[in-house]
């Protein structure tokens, strides 16, 4: 039986992990993305997402080295996202060793980027990241540019379009819940999971193991992504998975 | 030397990195003229069956792969690479495969989401030198929309339940296939790749564990950490 995936996510700026100090045993390792990726693999993470938040060209080049080094040492699937805007950039990241890329604002601006990337590299490596903000109880708008711009586009309609254009998976982040640690937006996750047939990764709002259970059951998610709950070491992937297993969720 | 066949599809990098990590010499090759120097051949692949067969034909690799198989040297197909080993596929039309294993490739019938993306449990079908490292609760990372309907159940080493019993590991003599990505299946996958690298050595796991644990390449950490 297929299992529900737990996916830790972390930000990398100019080759160093941002905000993860509590995870590293000593100063020499502090902020090393490859070491962090290995720790997560050891804890039983099913996949990893690395977001490049470097603002400079140099920082982005460094990211490719990090991707290559991670691929040499970590043997679970990993996705790289953050500012990827062209087929050439998708190619560079995949060539460096990432298994998937996540496309966000650039895909909204230029939806052909989805189809071109899928045609060239296969749908399995194209993850569309969708940031959604609640408009009414059952509708959500798509945000771009890190949440700064509301496109007015319906999140559910955009999810369907992304699927039709060849996206392999959807990473759905609730802008309202992100950082609140109050649980995932279950209605949003459910609305999108019901609208598409590709896997949906829920993101934004995880605060405790219970929230993962809710998003896998009531939310209908195939995978759940979380950052801060893991990086402040409040709980671990191992603990979350143990909890889910005890409650009958199919987990690796 | 393990040859990793680059015929224009898929990510060869990960498989190469996995063998590097395991300390098993491997080389990425592009043409049949390089087959002679190999003692093992690996066919990776993602994408569509028909396109992949066309690429193999264009590069004069079909006959060469069949000859390699006939030479009794171990041959491993991963994901689409495994599907290509069979007779035919109905993915976007009807396409002939390499015909090295008996069976047809068909779309997964459901009721679950297509493609299957994620970690699924391997259900051992029979004991084999290749799968001695499996411990009974092993998961592997799958990404596929099509699966093989094998014409001979005796080639099944492990299956995974996804509405149907998806053949996960198949083997007949020197021909081996893995539907999942061993290079992305953490310790379970690394051990299977290690096992392929020593196959058909029947001493299998004992030697495998020893090789990995005595490796200076960090294998110790991977193999011995407790998952829970």
Element layout with pairings:
The complex is a heterodimer of chains A (252) and B (228).
Chain A: E1 5-13, E2 16-17, H1 33-43, E3 48-52, H2 57-73, E4 78-81, H3 87-96, E5 100-103, H4 105-109, H5 112-121, E6 126-136, E7 139-144, E8 149-154, H6 155-164, E9 169-174, H7 186-195, E10 200-203, H8 209-217, E11 223-226, H9 228-231, H10 237-246
Parallel strand pairs in A: 1-3, 1-11, 3-4, 4-5, 5-6, 6-9, 9-10, 10-11
Antiparallel strand pairs in A: 1-2, 6-7, 7-8
Chain B: E1 2-5, H1 12-22, E2 26-29, E3 40-43, H2 49-58, H3 62-70, E4 75-78, H4 80-83, E5 88-89, E6 95-96, E7 103-107, E8 116-121, E9 123-124, E10 139-144, E11 146-150, E12 156-162, E13 164-172, E14 175-178, H5 186-198, H6 204-213, H7 219-224
Parallel strand pairs in B: 1-2, 1-3, 3-4, 4-14, 5-7
Antiparallel strand pairs in B: 5-6, 7-11, 8-10, 9-12, 12-13, 13-14
In brief:
Chain A has 252 residues and is α/β, with parallel strands linked by helices. Chain A has helices at 33-43, 57-73, 87-96, 105-109, 112-121, 155-164, 186-195, 209-217, 228-231, 237-246, and strands spanning 5-13, 16-17, 48-52, 78-81, 100-103, 126-136, 139-144, 149-154, 169-174, 200-203, 223-226.
